[in-house]
Amino acid sequence: MKLRKNIASSEEGFIFNPGTGDSFSTNPIGAEIITLLKENKSVSEIKSHMYERYDVEEVRFEKDLDDFISQLKEASILE
């Protein structure tokens, strides 16, 4: 899973899709996930990174990550 090449994003969580003209905002965790996707990290690498960095319940985070990825796909942010 990869971020589309034309997607612009900021460290603050602003995401712009020039292909559709849509823009989105996300929280700092979402911005961090976008950064990891830009680095071509896999879902399992993203999970490992977040588990090491934050004290999160794995089941809850996995559901939230799945939901976030679904939203990114729906918005044509991911390939």
Please describe what this structure looks like.
By secondary structure, the protein is α+β, with helices and mostly antiparallel strands. The chain has one domain (8-74). Helices cover 49% and strands 13% of the residues. The chain is built from 3 helices and 3 strands, in the order βββααα. It has a 3-stranded antiparallel β-sheet, covered by helices on one side. The radius of gyration is 12 Å and the shape is globular. The mean pLDDT is 94.
Give short descriptive properties of this protein.
79 residues; three-stranded antiparallel β-sheet; 3 strands
Write the layout of secondary structure elements.
Elements: E1 8-9, E2 14-17, E3 22-25, H1 28-38, H2 43-53, H3 58-74
Q: What's the main sheet like?
A: 3 strands, antiparallel
Identify low-pLDDT runs. Answer: none
Strand content: 5-15%
Q: Count structural domains.
A: 1
Major sheet: arrangement of strands: 1-2-3
H/E topology pattern: EEEHHH
Rg (C-alpha, Å)? 12 Å
Q: Can you summarize this structure?
A:
This protein is α+β, with helices and mostly antiparallel strands and 79 residues long. 49% of the residues lie in helices and 13% in strands. The chain has a three-stranded antiparallel beta sheet with strand order 1-2-3, with helices on one face.
